[in-house]
């Protein structure tokens, strides 16, 4: 009976951007969920209309977002689960629930596996794809080039850009925590983020509409949009054009200000790593990101 519901769901939703597969199962491995306490039908509807939902479980209507759940056991009776799969799921109708081919679902008896970020990374949904990110730290203070190498070698990632305010707030909150936690002798701790000053926006070029703020920089983060909104600048920054320095302020970092216990982005020399004393600092880490590995 349930299998029939599943097949109907598939065959009648080909024009929408997602498909719902309803079957029997139980969540096995997950980091978090929301407890919606809805009836099963309302539960499936709630998942259908929420683009971050990937699984709902019948008991208390537990809703799992993409990245929160990695393993669901298949049952042949008992509690129900529904998967919300994106449109580019390929399957031939009628299909068995174990035969679904999707970038978001893989089956190996008796478990379905779903994509999750590596340990300690948090998932962000961007227009250009699913992006896993963490504020990584280092034993030593890092030059910008060393942070790029560390992110690649330790995590297979690239220095992360900052797409929007949600991502900025995530990184800033972590930077504030780390500034309170780390006590190895520097006044403040800074963190490298993605961005390189454009060759067309270097001194003696002066500020103009095409070299003013975030658009003074290019970004190598592969899922960042062309006009990212997450670079929340410290007051009067970036100032590499209005107050040129030697070496030039060609790189970007997330800086912590002790006086306000807050953070913002600043342009700075790529060859900075640490300075001792009361106005000292240490570039203690970096925003590291990588694409969510789909199947
Ligand atoms: C879900 O919420 C309901 C109602 O608040 C509660 O009775 C139930 O124990 C919760 N279940 C879980 C798994 O948190
Ligand atoms: C979708 O679900 C997530 C996780 O439960 C929740 O935080 C978010 O507010 C929901 N979005 C909508 C549009 O209901
Ligand atoms: C389909 O899935 C692939 C991943 O397998 C993804 O790269 C691609 O962007 C998706 N296409 C659409 C139209 O969603
Ligand atoms: C994740 O973070 C914890 C706590 O900081 C750490 O002990 C663990 O080694 C980290 N895991 C990985 C894979 O980096
Ligand atoms: C730079 O942008 C700010 C607003 O963000 C604007 O007030 C200012 O006039 C711009 N400067 C130039 C030179 O375009
Ligand atoms: C990294 O940058 C620093 C400062 O510019 C430089 O001294 C060092 O040689 C560079 N290291 C590598 C491996 O490129």
TrEMBL record:
Pfam families: PAN_3. It comes from the Eukaryota. Residues 1-116 form the PAN-3 domain. Keywords: Signal. InterPro entries: CTDL_fold, PAN-3_domain. Residues 1-16 form the signal peptide. PANTHER family: C-TYPE LECTIN-RELATED, PAN-3 DOMAIN-CONTAINING PROTEIN. This is CW domain-containing protein.
């Amino acid at each position: 009976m349930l299998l029939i519901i599943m097949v109907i769901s598939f065959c009648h939703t080909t024009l929408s951007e997602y498909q719902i597969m309803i079957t029997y199962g139980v969540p096995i491995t997950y980091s978090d969920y929301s407890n919606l306490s809805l009836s099963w039908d309302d539960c499936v509807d709630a998942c259908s209309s929420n683009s971050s939902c990937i699984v709902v479980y019948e008991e208390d209507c537990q809703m799992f977002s993409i990245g929160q759940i990695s393993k669901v056991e298949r049952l042949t009776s008992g509690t129900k689960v529904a998967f919300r799969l994106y449109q580019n799921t390929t399957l031939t109708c009628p299909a068995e629930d174990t035969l679904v081919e999707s970038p978001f679902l893989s089956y190996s008896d008796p478990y379905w596996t779903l994509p999750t970020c590596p340990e300690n990374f948090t998932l962000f949904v961007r227009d250009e794809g699913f992006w896993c990110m963490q504020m990584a730290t280092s034993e030593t203070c890092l030059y910008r080039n060393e942070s790029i190498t560390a992110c690649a070698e330790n995590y297979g990632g690239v220095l992360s850009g900052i797409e929007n305010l949600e991502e900025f707030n995530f990184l800033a909150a972590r930077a504030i925590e780390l500034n309170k936690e780390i006590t190895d002798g520097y006044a403040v701790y800074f963190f490298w983020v993605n961005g390189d000053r454009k060759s067309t926006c270097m001194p003696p070029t002066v500020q103009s509409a095409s070299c003013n703020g975030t658009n003074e920089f290019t970004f190598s983060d592969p899922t960042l949009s062309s006009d990212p909104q997450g670079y929340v600048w410290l007051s009067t920054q970036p100032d590499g054009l209005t107050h040129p320095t030697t070496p030039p302020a060609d790189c970007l970092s997330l800086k912590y200000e002790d006086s306000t216990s807050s953070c913002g982005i600043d342009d700075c020399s790529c060859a900075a790593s640490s300075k001792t004393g009361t106005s000292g600092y240490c570039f203690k880490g970096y925003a590291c990101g990588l694409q969510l590995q789909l199947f």
